[in-house]
């Protein structure tokens, strides 16, 4: 299937590692030039160099804290100056839970920090990029949500808040941007084998005195993941690349779950 993405440009937040980097790689493999954002410059630059060398597309590393509106505007301006029209925006920046504890006990500043990053960061980057997106039907926004929006995960109060907001903003903007012919969809990943999740699995297995494989098998059973395994970053990336493509032109306001059947919510 020809996705029609060759020669387009995309901006991806949180693209230095994890799911964001995998999405960047997936789009680059389809011939999409990239502007990548994350805070830590050296890690972002190394990811950009790796993707450029592997795929031959142009990859701009734009170290940016998306909690800072001025920094976001400056980075988007640089992306536009160097890449021209930006067709695709992937709002992905987020990350692990800060501390494993009941988040209702958190100080106000910790709640605000999480919401400032994922929910408000998404709004800031979207607002800054919109004037530079095309209105010919090739514009795409994909928001990376998560299963904390559709189920209660222990110690994931702010992730639930943020991912529910991602889902709602996706619906809201799908309607709002219809006149500009920009589609807005959400991808809802389940348990995904990112670098930090690998470390989490290894540590949890060690604490329980079991192997990594035994811990994962038990966790997938406990969580009700019907695929009986965690997902790969590529499986999330493939869904995003499809939604970013011409082949998804009639998909708007959708929530595409990539969770191995977790949210089927099997009982009994
Ligand atoms: N892993 C999972 O199992 C899973 C499941 C469901 C949903 N998700 C969602 O998928 C997304 C990616 O998660 P991940 O697991 O791949 O996380 P990750 O590996 O920790 O990567 C997070 C990325 O976001 C960047 N980032 C964090 N804060 C930022 C800020 N203020 N400004 C700019 N960039 C920032 C990080 O770089 P810097 O730290 O250098 O800024 C990094 O590039 C998140 O939205 C997460 O909620 C993940």
CATH class of the largest domain: Alpha Beta
- Fraction in helix: 40-55%
**Unreliable stretches covering 5 or more consecutive residues:** none
Q: What's the total helix number?
A: 8
Determine the structural class based on helices, strands and strand pairing: alpha/beta
Summarize the structure in words.
The chain is α/β, with parallel strands linked by helices and 268 residues long. The protein folds into two domains: 9-192 and 232-258, Rossmann fold; 193-230. Helices cover 46% and strands 13% of the residues. The chain has eight helices and seven strands. The chain has helices at residues 18-29, 41-55, 69-83, 108-129, 157-176, 195-208, 212-223, 233-244; strands spanning 9-13, 33-38, 59-63, 88-91, 140-144, 183-189, 255-258. Strands 3-2-1-4-5-6-7 form a seven-stranded parallel beta sheet, sandwiched between helices. Helix 2 links the parallel strand 2 and strand 3. Helix 3 packs parallel to helix 4 (108-129). The longest helix has 22 residues, at 108-129. The radius of gyration is 18 Å and the shape is globular. The model has no long low-confidence stretch (mean pLDDT 98). NADP nicotinamide-adenine-dinucleotide phosphate is lined by residues 13-20, 37-40, 43, 64-67, 92-96, 117-118, 121, 144, 146-147, 189, 191-192, 194-197.
């Amino acid at each position: 299937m020809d996705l029609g993405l060759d020669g387009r440009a995309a901006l991806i937040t949180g693209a230095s590692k994890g799911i964001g980097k995998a999405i960047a790689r997936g789009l680059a493999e389809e011939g999409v030039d990239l502007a990548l954002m994350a805070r830590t410059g050296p890690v972002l630059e190394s990811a950009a160099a790796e993707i450029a060398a592997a795929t031959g597309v142009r990859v701009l590393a734009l170290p940016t804290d998306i909690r800072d509106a001025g920094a976001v505007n400056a980075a988007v301006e640089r992306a536009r100056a160097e890449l021209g029209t930006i067709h695709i925006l992937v709002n992905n920046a987020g990350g692990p839970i800060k501390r494993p504890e009941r988040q209702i006990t958190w100080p106000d500043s910790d709640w605000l920090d999480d919401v400032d990053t994922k929910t408000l960061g998404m709004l800031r980057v979207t607002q800054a990029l919109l004037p530079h997106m095309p209105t010919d039907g090739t514009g795409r926004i994909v928001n990376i949500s998560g299963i904390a929006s559709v189920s209660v995960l222990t110690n994931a109060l702010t992730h639930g808040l943020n991912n529910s907001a991602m889902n709602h903003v996706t619906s809201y903007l799908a309607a709002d941007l219809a006149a500009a012919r920009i589609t807005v969809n959400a991808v809802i990943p389940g348990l995904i084998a990112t670098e930090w999740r690998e470390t989490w699995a290894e540590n949890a297995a060690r604490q329980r005195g079991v192997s990594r494989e035994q811990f994962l098998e038990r966790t997938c059973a406990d969580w009700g993941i019907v695929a009986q395994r965690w997902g790969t970053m590529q499986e999330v990336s493939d869904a995003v690349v499809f939604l970013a493509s011409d082949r998804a032109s009639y998909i708007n306001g959708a929530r595409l779950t990539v969770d191995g059947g977790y949210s089927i919510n099997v009982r009994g």
